[in-house]
Amino acid sequence: MKEFNICSVNTEVLKEIQHKIDFKTKPVGALGQLEDTARQIAAIQNTLEPQLQKPHVLVFAADHGIANEGVSKYPQEVTYQMVLNFLSGGAAINVFCQQHGIALKVIDAGVKGQFEAHPQLLDQKIAEGTESFLASPAMTLEQCVQAISQGAKVVTEVHQTGCNVIGFGEMGIGNTTPAAALMHVITKIDLEVCVGKGTGLDNEGIQKKLHILQEALEHHADHLEDVDTTYEAGAAHFLWVLSTFGGFEIAQMVGAFLQAAEHKMVVMVDGFIASSALLVAQALHPQVLEYCVFCHQSDEQGHAKMLEFMKATPLLNLQMRLGEGTGCAVAYPLLQSAVQFVSQMASFESAGVSQS
Ligand SMILES: Cc1cc2ncn([C@H]3O[C@H](COP(=O)(O)O)[C@@H](O)[C@H]3O)c2cc1C
Ligand SMILES: O=C(O)c1cccnc1
Predict the structure, then answer these.
(1) Is the pLDDT of residue 71 over 80?
(2) pTM
(3) CA of residue 5 to ligand 2 center, whole Å
(4) Catalytic pick from 35, 69, 300, 324?
(5) Residue 172: CB within 6 Å of ligand 2?
């Protein structure tokens, strides 16, 4: 497995930027979470003059064997079709990226079917979909390790273009099911809390999804008993969990999160599925969380608890439940506001305004 070298952010800068923020012409703390975000970005960048450059969203797409068990409201071919939609500019993520000047790349991490070459599409296909984890591991350990390094590689390429702020999205019909499994195994939160409606299952559909997950956990129970999800237990446990229950887009996002933190990039975190990849990433390297701005709380029912587990306070709660990185794209202007008030607001002294 690729080694990641992730340092903690500079906490000295946190104190100094706080001082700078407190001398801006506003009551102390009045910009709320924008102040927290500004402090965090300053600490990540190790500067009192944080800046955002060349924002990117990477959408990782892949298919899932478990989708054949009827865990989604939509058919599997939607994954392939939506990739084409991303490439022709018609998806929600295209619209929001266009709106905010965010560059968008689409990564085929393991979609069923072949695509023609396209300047926005990267071929990082591990295989044409995972196996159903109802009866076997979703992927081999080798595939899992390969996916992590592929996800890392694309982030390094984007970083080399001068990008210092990046978000990860996903597309993969059925992928709220592996995300729920990862959440349950890593957080030990009751499976019922981790399972939600995804693309819009009704109650009966959610019960079926829950039963399939229970059956899958039962199938892997012998191994699961030996799984130690404490940090000290080491990477092998988490790699087993990720390869057994994950997906190729999820595993590539694990590598992407870790690599972005190694490059000291500001990392925008999207919804339930992206956060399930981050759960694995933070289990391997807890410092990755210091680089993460949690963009929104998804309406998928497990997300609130998942965020709580990572002690995260999301910027937005718009009852969105789409994925694709849309939470990152709509929250990006807030990150811009955070860095711009630091650089552009007057101080009490420069504006001649009296302090308390
Ligand atoms: C047209 C369409 C576009 C999407 N864009 C993201 N998702 C989202 O829905 C899927 C997860 O939900 P589930 O586990 O219930 O299948 C993922 O592809 C996710 O990205 C979409 C889903 C659909 C149908
Ligand atoms: O929060 C998400 O990422 C999400 C929720 C439901 C369906 N697709 C994605």
Answers:
(1) yes
(2) 0.98
(3) 30
(4) 324
(5) no
